[in-house]
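User: quick one, fold this
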Amino acid sequence: MTDQQDSPKPLDSETVAAYLRLHPEFFIDHEELIPELRIPHQPGNAVSLVERQVKLLRERNIEMRHRLGQLMDVARDNDRLFDKTRRLVLDLLDAGSLEEVVGIVEDSLRHEFQVPFVGLILFSDNKLPVGRSVSSAEAHQQVGGLLSGGKTICGVLRPHELEFLFGKEDAPQVGSAAVVSLTYQGLHGVLAIGSADPQHYKSSLGTLFLGYIAEVLARVVPSFATPLRSVR
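Assistant:
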């Protein structure tokens, strides 16, 4: 009777698991148990705990290296974008005419940034000698919803919006676009870039540099376009 009372009670698996979680160093002090452990890996096979841990660590290492590689790629892309944006901004500051400003923006976006579709429209009640210009009333009628808020808008646009921004010839080829207004002490125009891929401009995440370019343009353009319409 005494032997039954003094015999230890069997431990269930949950109790053992809880103890090992609290004492992860347990097998350091009891290395003799490691060779006897078997963990199911694939049907019909078993691996030791050490082998399983090594495999898991190797898989995690590969995953972390993959994530690090992705972060490095993003960093390199951002460095290249920053350098292109810096050169564009400096060229705009050195421009001596509205014709130079329009040419610099369109050439840089098409060739340096590799943007296939570019639309730069200035708002003026009188036709400007260079580039595309429309009255502010016409702009609000066609793309008024894209001009409010002063933020970059991305996604799939409606056919009439694409036609206004990129022209009849290019509009059917544009799958998605990013649009930002040129706003500084008034509304002076709109800048749009497009891609044939409907998913390319699906959020504003990758258009930070476009916003910077638009801010510089909004300050540079009015000094060369006297009749430029300023809407507050």
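User: anything notable?
Assistant: The mean pLDDT is 83.
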